[in-house]
């Protein structure tokens, strides 16, 4: 029997608890929420996703709604939630305090400017003033209408384009400027109106059979780490752990039960699927999930790879080799019973999450459908009796900020193609499992302890700041346990504060790896939740909770923190490069000393390109302070191939300059022209075609397609940059090192 290729999309909708418990910090009722992301993502991302899907009734999908998100949506709908952004937006212009004006100038451009600011001329005008003239100039020169317009546009820009045909919204977009307090009040009312439709729409589509709604442990905690922080050493045996071992497995059934009951009240039925927070699993958490009644969970292909002791490789097109291992559900066998589990295709999920936003919508949709058609062909060629299930699971909110029109053109093109393709069938996970129960089995004890990030927990534990936060949480949990009289019934404040502090998001932002414009606020919120435990128990708050967990000054050198998609125009847009790796050059000792013309090197990747940026001293010019030639030389570790030495005169005979390299991209900084070459026999270099982009303006920016380098996905590369004048070596960077790059 020939099966279509079944595809399960799972969109994960989540926000941590931004609501402060009061926690010893003087807060007025209008400031109980620290950040606005529930309200803003609520108007931009949660309703439109399912409304678009509803137009394509043949396509079934799964949406995961985290309880902590729904709780906060309900507060905003009720009009009881106020965040500092909303408070400022509803303040009469003439009553804005100096501190509020500073806050507005600093934070009311917290959005991707390419997609949310630039399309609106007045918003873009204000943004350019801040970027070009600085915050101090705006504070000194802006008049009340400037603040009034910025307050309005920050809220308007986050309303999804799907709703722009609403007469009121259309009128505001056309108006453009001179917004009044009354306008802003109406915009806020429109936001609440959109928020109020989110849960009813999900419930309606679930009852119609087009949607499956799943849930997550109550406040999105990482269950394996609640069970035992030592589980961090399963994937990383030498991990440095917190001073105290957090081992409170009894909190797991509490989070699961609260999520289960919460779901039943909102959706009128029991949930079948559970999205474990951060797709993190371990053998220890399975009994509680089974005992609560969940039928299936999902995780990442890296977890499956560790579990099966199988490394998933991909061909040159990025498609999985041995796909039958990944594209099937498994049955986890435990003494408490069985539980189904599906594993997502990490790369297909990441293409939507991080790469397709940089491509034309129809081309991106065609690329994804092409991958699925290739998998469908592999399924037919395998002559498998069992149908395959491709799981694409990802964050359902943050990626759309980087897409034009919030992803609407991409999703429309994708959904139309999938509706027209007879060999591809979109299903909910439960639909598939009911018709084709899992036949492959994994003993529960064999399941790897890990998450969607590299199959490990290093994103949430092991770093000094993350470990410090775990120690603070451990102390607070011990304090709560020392009060057996404080039950959830008679002291809910203490328990709610604990659940909030156990959420994964705080640990995500602490330490190395991730950073945002709100790091200090996340730090404060975490400590406020811990404050809330002590306050509810009438216990003194430890002095260390009054100090930040870590220093939030700007970092120096750091590795890439995520995919980037910069516009190559030589201007070094700060948002384009905010997740790039960074190497400080100007302050290094040795050859690249303080007088170095090159001050800083940035680098990063997405699925299409490698990106490089060089920042120069102000006024530096090629041919004067700066050599005229920049050479990028690519070194392929542990790969047998023809390599050649650096083709320049006077190259020092010292590592890494005396290594042999395989690809060379020479950039003429005067003309911005490029020459791409590949190593050949007898130390020769041969010309090759390249689609690399280069731009030199206030900085140098480069994009080199992976197709030029002809390397498969998941492959390590190394890079060195060599400066030259008329073919003679001048200098190189980074000093005494190679830049490590992983092809995604």
Largest sheet: 7 strands, antiparallel
The termini sit apart by: 36 Å
Percent strand equals: 15-25%
SS class: alpha/beta
The radius of gyration computed from the alpha-carbon positions, rounded to a whole number of angstroms, is 27 Å
Q: Categorize the overall geometry.
A: globular
Report helical residue fraction. 25-40%
Overall mean pLDDT stands at 93
> Stretches where pLDDT falls below 50 for ≥5 residues?
23-31, 587-595
**How many alpha or pi helices?**
25
Number of strands: 22
Short description, anyone?
This protein has 744 residues and is α/β, with parallel strands linked by helices. Helix content is 36%, strand content 17%. Strand 12 and strand 13 (609-616) form a beta hairpin.
What does this structure look like?
By secondary structure, this protein is an alpha/beta fold. The strands form 4 sheets. Strands 14, 15, 16, 17, 20, 21 and 22 form a 7-stranded antiparallel beta sheet that branches. α1 crosses α10 (181-196). Mean pLDDT is 93; it is low at 23-31 and 587-595.
């Amino acid at each position: 029997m020939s099966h279509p290729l079944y595809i399960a999309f799972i969109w994960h909708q989540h926000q941590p608890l931004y609501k402060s418990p009061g926690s010893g910090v003087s807060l007025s009722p209008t400031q109980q929420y620290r950040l606005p992301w529930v309200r803003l993502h609520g108007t931009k991302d949660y309703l439109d996703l399912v409304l678009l899907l509803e137009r394509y009734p043949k396509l079934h999908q799964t949406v995961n709604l985290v309880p902590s998100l729904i709780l906060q949506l309900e507060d905003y709908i009720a009009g009881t939630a106020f965040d500092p952004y909303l408070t400022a937006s509803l303040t009469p212009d003439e009553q804005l305090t100096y501190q509020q004006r500073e806050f507005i100038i600093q934070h009311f451009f917290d959005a991707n400017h390419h997609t949310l600011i630039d399309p609106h001329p007045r918003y873009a005008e204000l943004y350019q003033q801040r970027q070009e003239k600085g915050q101090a100039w705006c504070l000194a020169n802006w008049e009340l209408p400037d603040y009034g317009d910025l307050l309005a546009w920050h809220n308007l820009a986050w309303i999804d384009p799907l709703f722009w045909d609403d007469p009121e919204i259309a009128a505001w977009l056309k108006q453009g400027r001179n917004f009044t307090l009354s306008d802003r009040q109406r915009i806020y009312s429109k936001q609440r109106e959109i928020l109020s439709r989110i849960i009813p729409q999900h419930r309606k589509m679930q009852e119609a059979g087009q949607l499956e709604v799943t849930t997550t442990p109550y406040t999105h905690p990482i269950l394996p780490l609640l069970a035992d922080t030592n589980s961090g050493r399963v994937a990383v045996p030498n991990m440095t752990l917190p001073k105290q071992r957090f081992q409170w497995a009894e909190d797991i059934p509490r989070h699961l039960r609260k999520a289960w009951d919460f779901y039943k009240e909102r959706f009128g039925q029991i949930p079948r699927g559970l999205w474990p927070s951060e797709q993190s699993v371990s053998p220890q958490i399975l009994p509680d999930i089974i005992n609560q009644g969940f039928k299936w969970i999902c995780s990442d292909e890296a977890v499956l790879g560790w579990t099966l002791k199988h490394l998933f490789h991909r061909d040159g097109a990025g498609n999985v080799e041995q796909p039958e291992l990944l594209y099937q559900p498994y049955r986890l066998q435990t003494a408490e019973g069985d539980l189904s589990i599906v594993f997502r295709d990490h790369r297909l999920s990441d293409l939507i999450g991080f790469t397709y936003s940089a491509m034309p919508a129809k081309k991106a949709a065609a690329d994804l459908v092409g991958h699925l058609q290739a998998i469908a062909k592999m399924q037919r060629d395998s002559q498998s009796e069992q149908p395959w299930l491709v799981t694409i699971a990802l964050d359902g909110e943050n990626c759309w900020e980087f897409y034009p029109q919030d992803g609407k053109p991409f999703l429309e093109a994708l959904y139309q193609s999938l509706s027209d393709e007879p060999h591809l069938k979109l299903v909910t996970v439960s639909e598939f499992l009911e018709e084709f129960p899992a036949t492959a089995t994994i003993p529960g004890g064999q399941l790897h302890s890990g998450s969607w990030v590299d199959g490990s927990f290093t994103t949430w534990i092991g770093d000094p700041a993350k470990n410090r936060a775990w120690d603070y949480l451990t102390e607070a949990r011990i304090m709560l346990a020392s009060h057996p009289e404080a039950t959830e019934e008679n002291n809910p404040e203490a328990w709610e504060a604990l659940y909030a502090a156990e959420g994964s998001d705080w640990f995500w932002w602490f330490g190395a790896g991730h950073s945002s414009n709100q790091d200090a606020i996340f730090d404060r919120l975490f400590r406020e939740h811990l404050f809330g435990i002590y306050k509810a128990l009438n216990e003194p708050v430890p002095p260390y909770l009054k100090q930040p967990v870590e220093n939030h000054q700007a970092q120096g050198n750091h590795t890439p923190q995520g995919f980037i998609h910069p516009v190559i125009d030589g201007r070094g847009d700060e948002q384009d490069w905010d997740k790039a790796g960074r190497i400080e050059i100007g302050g290094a000792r040795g050859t690249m000393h303080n007088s170095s013309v090159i001050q800083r090197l940035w680098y990063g990747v997405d699925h299409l390109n490698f990106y490089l940026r060089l920042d120069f001293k102000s006024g530096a010019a090629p041919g004067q302070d700066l050599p005229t030639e920049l050479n990028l030389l690519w070194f392929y570790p542990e790969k047998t191939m023809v390599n050649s030495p650096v083709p320049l005169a006077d190259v020092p005979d010292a590592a890494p300059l005396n290594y042999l390299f395989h690809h060379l991209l020479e950039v003429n900084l005067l003309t911005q022209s490029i020459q791409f070459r590949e190593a050949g026999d007898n130390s020769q270099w041969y010309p090759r075609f390249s689609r690399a982009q280069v731009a030199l303006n206030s900085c140098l920016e480069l994009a080199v397609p992976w197709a030029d380098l002809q390397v498969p996905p998941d492959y390590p590369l190394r890079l060195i940059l060599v400066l030259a004048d008329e073919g003679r070596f001048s200098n190189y960077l980074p000093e005494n090192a190679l830049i490590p790059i992983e092809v995604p």
